[in-house]
Every structure is written in structure tokens, then in C-alpha cells.
Amino acid sequence: MAEANQETTPRQYINIELLTEALRTGNIVQFRNEFLDMHPYNQAEFFKELDEEDRLNIYHYLSPEEMAGLFENLDGEEHEYREVLAEMSPSYAADMLSNMYADDAVDVLNELEKDQVVSYLTIMDKEAADEIKELLHYEEYTAGSIMTTEYIAIVANQTVRSAMHILKNEAPRAETIYYVYVIDEDRHLVGVLSLRDLIVSEDDAMISEIMYDRVVSVSVGEDQEEVARMMRDYNFLALPVVDFQDHLLGIITVDDIMDVMEEEASDDYSKLAGIADLDSIDRNPFTAAKKRLPWLVILLFLGMFTASLIGRFEETLNKVAILAVFIPLIAGMAGNTGTQALAVAVRGIATGDLEKENKWKIILREAGTGFITGLTCGVLITLVVYFWKGDLFLGCLVGISIFITLIVATLAGSLVPLIMHRLNIDPAVASGPFITTINDIISILIYFGIATAFMSYLIE
């Protein structure tokens, strides 16, 4: 994405009414003076609140190049991009896309139908179109799909003075100038320099003498989550992207990674909640229901299985009705502890922390956690039931059931995402509702299994 504009507006308060009035009355000079003085983010926020008629005026008041800065900060949904682009003339939209940073233009085009993409690329500036086509070929959610090709590269056998000359010429078109990459005659990545290195070095110093040759880079096919972890670990502002032969293909900037982290977090939370997509608020109840129904239908049938499982112990319940009182308690505790273990496991996988640990150590640690929590809760509930109902054996039965249930539920909550991760399945699909329902089934089996086995000792 575009490098953030560090200049803030001179005014802390943006006069929306003045802008809107200037827009609607055709006062182009006043509108442009006020609007172009705003940060691109504020421009995009103002633009999103306008109706179609007002937006049509903006297309007449702003050049495609000026509109490009706004569009890079729009962050719209798929249908919003389509609607806005449809309002523009094809030539205006194509010029605007040509003036956007290539990776931002690709993000927009990825939301369109293929025939629309082809149409825009056909009438777009050839150089910009070729650059965008190259990025469109990379698989989604990989380093190649989020990189930009607008970077600054120099060669090793030149002086700092000549490198600074290149930097000044290329800076207006580059997405970031804080890192300058060094390549050889075959475009292999051989080194990197920071802007600070260039500024403090002597003008006659050779680039080969001051560059860092141990460059941290990422493969073009690397998953974007792994790229985000590398950016976090190394605290880079940008990360070079190479192919299998170390040819420099592009760079990924920190603002792109922030978008990736937000996207991945939203995706994981959606799956943990058992919802298809939480990227946007659905104001249409039918659309919202469509996203939520698949998981709910699955959980409905799992719930029916749980109900039928309880039905198989109907004879036990008829003889000892007091057992029904503790069903919600045991099932709820199983679901809670399973969800806690699931959250820890999914977070560990997402951050890469679990990759550094031995899997057996993880399993033993979770088993120990389940043992401690189960023992504590089991002893507490045994005492509570004894003083409440005056039946020590009933208290022991409920306590032992919770003890075993919490151990099993903790292991299930941590093992399921680990197994899914091993099978290259997104562990977040082991959602909270799914784990909760599975642990309900396990807890019912444990509880009524123990109760049936020792039913003769229970007091009705």
C-alpha cells in the first residue's frame, strides 16, 4: 500500500459542511483547496459518506492521479469497489488505477470480475498494466500477492554519490525509500542499505563496502502469515521478496503487513466464532444468516446427537433424577476449559510460538494444566454438593466427573488444532462452538458412564 503521508492538515477540525456545500454548489476552487489539504485517509472517509450524485461531482473536480491517493485508502468491500468504479468513465478509472501503487491496484482488481479486469488493463497505461499483470499472477495470500515492485535498487560497484542521485530520481515513484537494495547484473539480491547508511557515508565510498550482504528475504510463494511473523521478529519497515534463485522481485512494506494481520485476525476470529466472515457488518439479515447458518446447522445436528446420548441414559435419570441438575454444570465447564485451551493453541500456531516447541511437551503441559484445574474444581464441587445435598457419594461422583472431563476437554481443545495444523488445515476452523459441542458429548459420556456404573450407591 502507499507509504503513509506524514504531513497532517494544518487544521485539527475538518469542516464537513463547508466541503459538502462547495461540492454541491460547484465551487471547485474552494473544494479543492479544502479537500486536497486533508490526509488521504480523511479524504476516503469523507468520500464514503457521499451519495452517488456527490461522488460524480468529485470525479469532475479531481484528476485521476488525485483520486488514486484517495482510492488507496478506501478499504471498501467487493461490491463497493464495483459500484464506485462503475460510476467513473472507463478511461478515468483506468488512469486512476495506473496512478495507484501496483499492489494497491491489484487489491482493487482482485475484487472485480475477470472481464472487468481485462477491460481496465487493456486501456490502462502499458507500463502500469504490465506491472499489475505480473502481480496478478501470484497466488492469493502469498508474499507475491502483497508485494510491490516499486522499490529502489542499485548495484554494488558504484559510489554513494551516484546511489544518492538514483535515489533522488526514483524516490517519487518508490513506495518506500528507507531501504535501498543492492543487486548484481543478473538482478540477484546481494545486499541492502538503509537511508541512514547512505546519508552518513562518504560520497566516494563504494556501495560494496558499506552494504549489508546478509540480507533477510522471503520467498515469493511464502504464506502471508509467515511474512507477517518475520516482519514482527526483525522489526523491518520493508522485506525483499525473491524467487528460488534469489532474483529480487519486489518488496513488502509494513503497512501491507498491518493489513494482513488485521485480515488474518478477523478471519481467525470469524472461524473461532463459527461465522463465515466478519470482515463487514451485514445490514441485510438474510446475508448475515447465510454466513452463520452452515456452522449452526452442523452444531444443530451435533446437539441432537448430544440429546440422543442423554436419552440413552434415560433409565439412569429416572432412577436418580438429581443427576439432571448437574448436566449444565459439567457440560459448561467442559466447554469453557476446551475453549480456553483452543484459544491458546490457535494463538500459538498463529504467532509461530508452538513451532519452536516439542509437540509432546505441549501435550504433557496441557495434560498437567487439565489435571490441576480438574483436581481443583473437582474437590470444590465435591464439597459444595456434599454441604448442599448432604450426599458425599453424589458429591464425589460429580467431582470425579468434572476432574476427568476437564483433563479430556483441555487435551481436546489443544490437540484438535495441532492435528489440523499438521494436516495443513487452518486450525481456526476448530471453532469455539465446535469444540464446545464436542466437549459436551464427551462430558455427558463421562458423567453418565460413571453414574450408571455406580448407580446402586446413589440416593434417590
From TrEMBL:
SUPFAM superfamilies in the cross-refs: CBS-domain pair (SSF54631), MgtE membrane domain-like (SSF161093), MgtE N-terminal domain-like (SSF158791)
Top-level taxon of origin: Bacteria
Sorted keywords for this record are: CBS domain, Cell membrane, Magnesium, Membrane, Metal-binding, Transmembrane, Transmembrane helix, Transport
Task: Spell out where the chain crosses the membrane.
Answer: 293-310, 322-346, 367-386, 392-420, 441-459
GO MF annotation terms: magnesium ion transmembrane transporter activity; metal ion binding
Give the matching PANTHER family: MAGNESIUM TRANSPORTER MGTE
Q: Give the family from UniProt.
A: Belongs to the SLC41A transporter family.
Protein name according to UniProt: Magnesium transporter MgtE
Upper classification of the organism: Bacteria, Bacillati, Bacillota, Bacilli, Bacillales
